[in-house]
Specification:
Structural class: alpha/beta
Largest sheet: 5 strands, mixed
Helix content: 25-40%
Radius of gyration: 14 Å
Distance between the termini: 26 Å
Shape: globular
């Protein structure tokens, strides 16, 4: 199944490039850190990993994809804050490592479309 642009907008078209990764002009180097994300038919689950005190967060994707994306970005920003200060003149650049669970293909495609150009990078999670 493919996602049509009308079904799920690319939010960077409306908000500008790298809208989801706050930084200022003195932060020149982006340091990538992975965040594991599971996509199923109805939800996206964010696992902050063992280096964070945060719990796994489940985000329901309903009809309001933009609101769900904003909630996801808020969770990602909480995870990034839990990492502490980045190296001098740098900023944390989160990379979602996406694991698609059965029935989650459409959700994964929607997530990629919504966050394309947001500054949050996405990649397939390595299988264990």
């Amino acid at each position: 199944q493919s996602v049509s642009p009308g079904t799920c907008p690319c939010l960077a078209d409306q908000r500008g490039a790298e809208w989801a990764v706050p930084r200022n002009s003195t932060q020149v180097t982006g340091y990538r850190r992975p965040i594991l994300v599971w996509c199923d038919a109805d939800n996206v689950q964010v696992d902050p990993g063992t280096s964070s005190w945060l719990a796994v967060e489940k985000i329901a994707f309903g009809a309001g994809h933009e609101a769900s994306a904003d909630q996801l970005v808020g969770v990602v920003q909480q995870v990034v804050q839990s990492w502490g200060a980045p190296p001098e003149r740098g900023y944390w650049r989160p990379e979602l490592r996406i694991r698609v669970l059965p029935g989650g293909e459409l959700r994964s495609q929607q997530l990629r479309r919504l966050l394309d150009g947001s500054g949050i990078e996405m990649a397939e999670a390595a299988e264990r």
